[in-house]
Write a structure and sequence with these properties.
The complex is a heterodimer of chains A (197) and B (186). Chain A is mainly beta and 197 residues long. Chain A is built from two helices and eleven strands, in the order αββββββαβββββ. Chain B is built from five helices and two strands, in the order αααββαα. Classes of the chains: A mainly beta (197), B mainly alpha (186).
């Protein structure tokens, strides 16, 4: 009897707790097939596009309550491809990305805020070529219909921002001059995410 | 008498002479730029030298095309009367080969740039569209062809200048002076 009453109280407490707690932010994993991370430099006043072929995104995020979010992006810098043998050979060197010493970059953010409707900004730290800098990454969030037969929830995250290469020592020595290779590099991303939660 | 713009059957007009000497001067600058750009160590200077070389290549291509049009709508001065059959054949063949090389070299350069997929704007202003898809193999082949065409052009310049000097100092005819000064003043 006492035992049964305790169980009932226990159940009630659990129900109350569930109702009072905020909806848990979902955990999202990146679907590599639908995701792309591009960068565009300025080469002799001419647009020079490239991609990082390998990168991964992990996200804890509730679009309605972005306060408890966590965003982690890991980028394999040595997967950079500018679709030109000459340029690809150059950017692996110590004056540019220095693949040998810094093959990975990462972005970590725990501060994600809604700007309006489906637009957000993630404030975090970008570690690139051994330099850590505060970076703001704006993005739009959109629900994506699940492909036929797939389980889980799908979403898309895309955005664009600019970095100054000098802040990370990319293009050092005589390459620091910005008339030949521009100071600013635009970064553009389109990430497809899946949540099973 | 005002300078004659058009050619006559006897001599070159001022526009044809301008085209000849402008292309001659630009080709010399172009060779210097090309050799310097390819020999330079990888540096901002090397990239700038290549932008100058590629841009000048398009100026030369444009001048040569205009020059060909001008040649078609003008009489071409007759070859010197004192030339033998073989000399006439050599003159016509070498002049024809000049036009072929002066068009092929820039077009071949365009192929190299497209195949190597190096971003390029003519004089930093006009982005150049690609004429072939990126291909390291094609870029290598086209670079070798560029060197072969350049070698042929260099050889032709030596033959051409040698022949002009022979006309002037050995055969003592009007071939060099009419390209330098046009028709004799009367």
């Amino acid at each position: 009897m006492i035992r049964r009453a305790l169980t009932a109280v226990h159940c009630l407490a659990l129900l109350l707790a569930a109702a009072a707690a905020p909806a848990r932010a979902a955990d999202w994993r990146m679907e590599a097939a639908g995701s792309r991370l591009e960068f565009t430099a300025l080469f002799e006043k001419t647009s020079a596009p490239g991609v990082f072929r390998e990168f991964d995104t992990r996200l804890r995020f509730d679009p309605d309550k972005p306060a408890d979010s966590r965003l982690e992006v890991n980028i394999k810098i040595s997967s950079a491809d500018m679709n030109s043998t000459d340029i690809n050979n150059a950017i692996r060197g110590a004056e540019w990305f220095d693949f040998g010493r810094f093959p990975q970059a990462e972005f970590r953010a725990t501060d994600i805020r809604r700007i309006e409707a489906n637009r957000y900004v993630a404030r975090g730290a970008l570690t690139l070529k051994g330099v850590q800098q505060a970076v703001e990454v704006p993005f739009t969030w959109s629900a994506v219909p699940a492909p036929a037969g797939a389980r889980g929830t799908f979403a898309g995250m895309e955005g664009e921002f600019a970095l100054r290469r000098s802040a990370f020592g990319i293009g050092s020595g005589e390459w620091a001059a910005t008339n030949v290779i521009g100071a600013e590099v635009r970064v553009k991303f389109r990430v497809r995410l899946r949540s099973d939660g | 008498m005002p300078p004659m713009l058009r050619n006559s059957r006897e001599s070159w007009g001022s526009l044809a002479r301008f085209f000849h000497w402008a292309v001659a001067a630009l080709v010399l600058v172009q060779v210097a730029l090309g050799l310097a750009a390819s020999a330079w160590r990888l540096s901002p200077m090397k990239l700038d030298l290549f932008v100058w070389h590629k841009s000048l290549g398009f100026v030369i291509l444009l001048l040569v095309l205009l020059r060909l049009i001008w040649r078609m709508v003008n009489p071409t001065p007759a070859l010197s009367a004192g030339m033998s059959g073989i000399e006439r054949l050599g003159a016509r063949a070498s002049h024809g080969l000049f036009y072929v090389l002066l068009i092929l070299l820039p077009v071949n350069g365009w192929v190299i740039n497209s195949a190597a997929n190096v971003p390029f704007s003519i004089f930093w202003l006009l982005p150049l569209p690609a004429i072939v898809a990126p291909s390291p193999a094609l870029a290598g082949t086209a670079e070798n062809a560029h060197f072969v065409l350049f070698s042929l052009l260099s050889l032709l310049v030596v033959v051409h200048a040698g022949a002009a000097l022979r006309h002037h100092f050995v055969k003592r005819d009007e071939v060099l002076s009419r390209m330098l000064f046009g028709p004799p003043r009367t």
